[in-house]
Structures are given as C-alpha cells and as structure tokens.
Amino acid sequence: MQAYMRKTVKIIGIVIVLSLIGFMVSVPIVNDCSALRTARELEEIPLPEQTEYIESISKAGKLVGNGNGMQFLGGILVKSDLTLEELEAYYSAYAEREWECVVEKQTAQELQFLDHVNISFDTEIKEDNYYIVYSWGEGMEIFSEFDIRGH
Hints:
There is one protein chain. It is elongated, with a radius of gyration of 21 Å. It is an alpha+beta fold. It has helices at residues 2-44, 84-92, 141-145; strands at residues 51-61, 71-80, 102-105, 130-137. It is built from three helices and four strands, in the order αββαββα. 38% of the residues lie in helices and 22% in strands.
C-alpha cells in the first residue's frame, strides 16, 4: 500500500510540474494570438473606395509607455488615394473606443510610434499614400500577468 501511495504522489507531482510548464509555454502563444486577433479584426473591416490592402502586423508585449503591462497591437498597411482625414472619418465609424482604428500616415517601413520594440512592414514605402490603421487590443488577464514581455 505504501508503494502505491508513493507512486500516486509521484504521478500527481509530475502532472503538476507538467501543467505549470505547459501553462508557461502557452503564455506568449496566447498573447501573440490576442494581438493577431486584433489585426484580423481590422482586416475584416471593408476597405474604403480607392484603398488597397497591403499587409498586416501584430505584436504583443510592452510596446509604448512606462511601467509594466502587456499591450496588444494589430495593424494593417493600406495604400489609398484618400486623404488622411477621409480615412480617419471612414474608420472612425468602426471604432468603439478612441484606441481602435487609429489612422496615421506611414512614411517608412518601421512603425515610428513604438517605444520599446522595432516593428517593420515587409513592404517598402516609396510613395506618400501609405497609411497604417491600427488598434490596441485586449488579452486574457491571467496570460498577461505571466508574460515576461510585459515587464
């Protein structure tokens, strides 16, 4: 009976350790998926006339500002004959909060508004009619707390 108890305790210990390892491995994957979901939501918005989808980006981590905390960025690069103001007006109809569907002129491959990481589009920006439409998404709090990229 004592050998059975030792074996049971050992199995329970192994299960607990493997569960913790599995959780820690899944943390960055789940957070990256939250950022990717934010980009996918932007891709689902119908494009305005005279606008072409080029590519999307997503990133999870501490991206701007000070302190701790995960941030989830999703964005799309578009090429448009519309003005910045026209694009802002169009995308504002799809924004429920002020940090959603933000439109800015994109003059280089690299995103200029990020503090802590470098993110670049694959597309070479040669003209002045490229824009980024981006949103700050949300993740699952338990996974955000344990992701070292947010600290």
